[in-house]
Amino acid sequence: MIRLSFNDGWRTRPKVNPFAELGGASVPFEEVTLPHDAMIGRRRVAQDGEATMEGGAGAYFPGGVFDYRKTFSVPEEHRGKRVVLEFEGVYRDATVYVNGDYAGQRPYGYSLFRVGIDRFLRFGQDNEIRVEARGHRDSRWYTGAGVYRDTWLLIGEPVRVSPGGVRITTPEIDAEGAVVEAATTIENDSMEIRTVDVVTEIRDAQGTAVASDVSKVTVLPGEPAVSRRRLYVREPSLWSPDSPALYTAAVTVEDAGTQIDSETAAFGIRSLGLDPVRGLRINGRTVKLRGACVHHDNGPLGAATFARAEERRVRILKDAGFNAIRMSHHPMSRAMLDACDRLGVLVMDEAFDMWTSSKSDFDYSLSFPEWWERDIEAMVAKDVNHPSVIFYSIGNEIPETGSAAGAAWGRRLAEKVRALDGTRYVTNGVNGMLAVMSDLAAMMREKDGAEEGRGINTMMADVGDAMDRVSSSELVTRRTAESFGVLDVAGMNYSEGRYAQDRDLFPNRIIVGTETFPTRIDGNWRLVREHGHVIGDFTWTGWDYLGEVGIGRPQYLSPENPRPGHTAPYPHLVAGCGDIDITGFRRPASYYREIVFGLRTRPYVAVRRPEHHGKTWAGGPWTWSDAISNWTWPGFEGSPVTVEVYGAADEVELLVNDRSLGRRPAGEEHRFRAEFDTVYEPGELLAIAYQNGVETGRSTVTSADGAVRLHAEADRPVITAAAGDLAFVSLTLRDAGGTPHPMADRPVRVEVSGDGVLQGFGTAAPSTEEGFDATERRTYEGRALAVLRPTGPGKIRLLASAPDCEPAEVLITVEEGRRP
């Protein structure tokens, strides 16, 4: 079918009761271009110190019902053709109307869905599409709201390739060649039997045809037919994380020599293997998963899903050492899947965060019993040609997994996935503690001999140890055995204590750490390396996110804060537990992880904030220290300070202005870190790593000196006008030599002119009342990020200004272009 972008020309507003509007209570529409997040621009509020109904889970953004409308025309010559609207994602409870008539709906906010609209259209006249979307107390994280992913208008003949109807598998692969099976579904909505030719051609990355075939297919009215061809590709280039080679299957449908439809599908040729001795194998080679859990929001952009933002995120994660992403806890966007294919990042795509048991007042559990099969089908259909996808996860921390009925549900979901795609592995992120929550009080009384309730409170004092201890118990072993048994890979959340013991208890069980504490990566990665049946680790989280506010924030005990809380009060905004912050900047934990993974030999230096020196630490298992890579602390000259040095070598030495503070042990036996106490004096920190007395690397951190300068730099000087492209402009405070000035924060104002608009503007500030739609933001740790969306070919000019700084300017060229 012809695929046309349907992103332009929309209007939106909060939904208005039509009876109230008749009485004069009108709300104006705002013109928008999709993708659009209706929630990110709303003002966050807290009343009397308490959160709104959405609370910290949703970053204190209010929910609501949102009305989207678009007027468009369909030429008279399209009468008799099939016209379909495709929505890649609408959050949530989407209802679609065409010219006032109900056309379709989708309760789940993360499923790609299509609505046939030709029967409602007025050909040759204006038509109106209306989409209603709802987001309200239905999630444990920031979801955004509205039509937040791309939309498409599909137009095709009565006989055509079904949308998404080209499926590629590679059942046989060796060094000499590969069998590529192309299954193409042809639909026939005409009133007669049609026989067509289906031409299938396989092209390599350069566009050269490497295999082709033609088959005749007879399609009965209303009865789709599948053309299944086995094509042979000689000396294939295999897809892997190190060499992500892609091919394209081009399918054309011809009737009496005339082309009536065409479709293409990108794919990779690669094999998967899995066993408890060699673990996960790709093309016969064992691969350990260095995984990142990732939510779907993109910081200053909110939930709006732009292809360039997804690609940037995948590239930054891979550059930081990750080779796998677990989409948490919902199906991944098509744009991110494409990026993972191109860049060579493995994917665990996840279906649901809940089944029949609710986690929020109005979540998807209300629709799950009726809609789960269609949403599984949508996820698999979206993923099936992507070589990056190696796992389907059927859920996350589902409470039912500890019961017989829940295990039956798990088997039902797993077998549905296998029936749709038997070429990948099925997992489920099981939290052992949640699976036995109903028995927890009794178990703790039996274990500790405590009175009712006391054992639980004691256990929850350290949630990390509690989860691991409970998950390793005999109770969890017994109650989760069937739920794990229906899976190909046992996904375990915060349960590393099970890794070694399950090798003996369940010798055929293969484990992946689907969710783990970032502060425990050194021990977890040792377990991954040592055990063949443990295939990887996915940290919570690789990229920071909006909502679940403050679970990773640094905390200290004080009379005002005697019992630190799990989440933070308004106006906290982010979770604060990501290796990479919401603007894409790598935090110290990211460099530590890179060292643990064995991917970095140079040491890394970070300094704890001197204003907290001597306080009693009270951070949780998601919390890194408050250290940053900075040696500019105005006002703290002569004050005590702690320096953290991360390194894989035996020893690290720290020098302050060429004065050695001595050597201290580091490396794996000392958790890859050493600490040095000193006093702050401007100048230079130098860390040197030694292995067996021989230097293996060094790193320096230098104080900023002199006047503060504002620097602006775009991630790319040239972008395209294609839908989904963006430019990311980093705004940083530096001295004349380019050294960052992270303690010189000040407001920065941006002005955008030319052929583009400001799509989002923000910082990684964990707590702020500033909005991402503002044109002025205060920097955080000397940084801010402006995101520009092109409106057409030409030039985009960004002018940034800040007090006591010379203005900074960036000029970006926008070329014609098509989305890949």
From TrEMBL:
It comes from the Bacteria. Residues 280-439 form the Glycoside hydrolase family 2 catalytic domain. Residues 66-134 form the Beta-mannosidase-like galactose-binding domain. Residues 710-810 form the Glycoside hydrolase family domain. InterPro entries: Beta-gal/glucu_dom_sf (IPR036156), Beta-mannosidase-like_N2 (IPR054593), DUF4982 (IPR032311), Galactose-bd-like_sf (IPR008979), GH (IPR017853), GH2_Domain-Containing (IPR051913), Glyco_hydro2_dom5 (IPR040605), Glyco_hydro_2 (IPR006101). The keyword Protease does not apply. Belongs to the glycosyl hydrolase 2 family. This is Glycoside hydrolase family 2 TIM barrel-domain containing protein.
